[in-house]
Amino acid sequence: AVGARDPLAPVGYRVNNLGIPGAKSFHLLVPGYAQLNPYYGRFATNAGNAVVQEITPLNPTFFCVWLGDNDVLSYAIAGGASDSITNPQLFQQAMGGVLPTLTASGAKGVFASIPDITAIRFFTTVPYNGLVLTQSQADSVNMAMKLYQLPYVYKAGPNPFFVADPTSPHPIFKLRQMQPGELVLLTVPQDSLKCSGMGIINPQTFMPYPIPSKYALTADEVYQIRTATSAYNSIIAGLADNFGLAMVDMNAKLRDLQAGIVWDGVKLNTKFVTGGAFSLDGIHLNPRGNAVAANYFIDAVNAKYGSSIPQVNITNYPGVVFP
User: How far apart are CA 146 and CA 280, in angstroms?
Assistant: First the structure.
């Protein structure tokens, strides 16, 4: 619209919320990060500053740190096809560089662990065996398997999708069936899955049509993500203890949410769309889910410091609004 404000224009004042979309742990120590991340560029007081340099002028008395998800998330949402997982040693150095600055003036604070992102609905909504066939369809697919000399047999009901795999020994088709524990990303083109035969056979060409690897995580990639997450959380727990901070185990809280919880009379779980806690991107909490997370932080702060901060009423915050 004419006269609309540029959403990435500088805010023009000093902020005390240094949360930055897309930032990894070590990004906070990078000079000139404002030139690499436009969201930081909106509030950086100096374009040459590292994010950590914005802390001292604020003279904080209390802080919250929930940092590190992006150190594995950016790799995971790309299907392991781009970006990389932050090495735990670098993660340790980064976190060890931020906390001394936060606590330099004697500030107290609360630190949160990183959830196992492979358990969120972005990675679990489309099952690895979501290829549901009738007997007639299975018979047609089995005919194609014999024609192309692929060693797979299909049946009526759920079957594993094909995924691209450059290590496949087949001389022509570099693909294989997905295995239990492997994950299909929510960004996989749904129209291609449902209408164009992605994951099995293209009905127009009658050729195998695997899911591209950028839309899936292999068992090894899932293992790498979970191993790094475990290492990060050990580092976070150790730093929280060393610096005398309150600690929120958000990894455990996500597991509770998966099983289902009731808060203020509201039932919440992690189901896509209907679970009530996550937004429609399958990654981020919605306002109501964030209210629950805020209460977990409040509980941890009250337990550590003997304070009496009241919890928020989660019913004041919307979940997914249905039409």
Answer: 41
